[in-house]
Amino acid sequence: MAIEHDFFGLLESGPDGSIFWSENVEFGDQSVTVDLTAPDQDEVSIDALDVAAAMISSLETIDLAARNAMVNELDDRTSEVTEYILQQQATLGEELNDLLSDPSGDTHIDVIKSLQLMSMTILADEHGGADPFAVLEYALDPDSTDDVLLVNLASDGQVQSVTSAD
Q1: How far is CA 141 from CA 21, 69, 100, in A?
Q2: Rounded distance, CA 48 to CA 127, Å?
Q3: Which pLDDT does position 143 carry in this prediction?
Q4: With 0-12 CB in 10 A as exposed, 13-18 as middle and 19+ as buried, what is 89?
Q5: How far apart are CA 54 and CA 158, in angstroms?
Q6: How far apart are CA 90 and CA 138, in angstroms?
Q7: CA-based Rg of the chain, rounded to a whole angstrom?
Q8: Whole-number mean pLDDT of the chain?
Q9: CA gap 141, 128 in Å, rounded
Q10: What is d(CA 166, CA 9) in angstroms, rounded to the nearest whole number?
Q11: What is residue 147's predicted lDDT score, i.e. its pLDDT?
Q12: φ and ψ at residue 94, rounded to 5 degrees
């Protein structure tokens, strides 16, 4: 079986009934890997695909909301965003400044501004549910894939949480 969608084209299911779509999307001056996946195509609605397509098309707006959510986490010294930044400072030391795109002197904000959006994974079967519908992966250093922040989004585009990959 397969699902046809204007944005994604023909989504064919694998032998286990799962679907997978992947594309590199240009975002600013970088390329972001966007994956759409679901373990069972029967749990994927056209509405879910429409929402996924809208999210991909408005990646700039989604990215801004995700970064704002990270900034909001800075008030909490125990937040995963704050811990991530402190870890980066401890690990990189002076080399951190080389990774900052536009240093202003506020290291925490500078790190958030300098994070690169590496990927967006859309869990199409989670449309309208409590679990994340989309997960954005951010890294300060694209070569260090272990040190990332994950921003979980609901299907309405609202940020549910920001976590580290640990």
Answers
A1: 26, 20, 10
A2: 5
A3: 78
A4: middle
A5: 13
A6: 19
A7: 17
A8: 92
A9: 33
A10: 35
A11: 85
A12: -65, -25
Amino acid residing at 40? D
Question: What pLDDT score was predicted for residue 28?
Answer: 82
- Which residue has better confidence, 29 or 69? 69
- Cα dist from 102 to 98, 106, 129, 138, 158, whole Å: 10, 10, 38, 17, 27
Q: Which residue has the higher pLDDT, 98 or 51?
A: 51
**pLDDT bracket for residue 166 (50, 70, 90):** low
In the chain the beta strands, taken as DSSP E runs, fall at: 2-5, 9-12, 19-27, 30-38, 116-123, 134-139, 148-153, 159-164
Rounded to 5, what percent of the chain is helix, strand, coil?
Answer: 35, 30, 30
Q: Greater confidence, 64 or 93?
A: 64
Are 162 and 149 a contacting pair, CB within 8 Å? yes
In this structure, the number of other CB atoms found within 10 A of the CB of residue 117 comes to 23
Q: Which residue has the higher pLDDT, 101 or 160?
A: 160
Pairing status of strand 159-164 against strand 148-153? antiparallel
> Which is nearest to 130 in space by CA: 156, 165, 164?
156
- What is the DSSP code (8-state) at residue 139? E
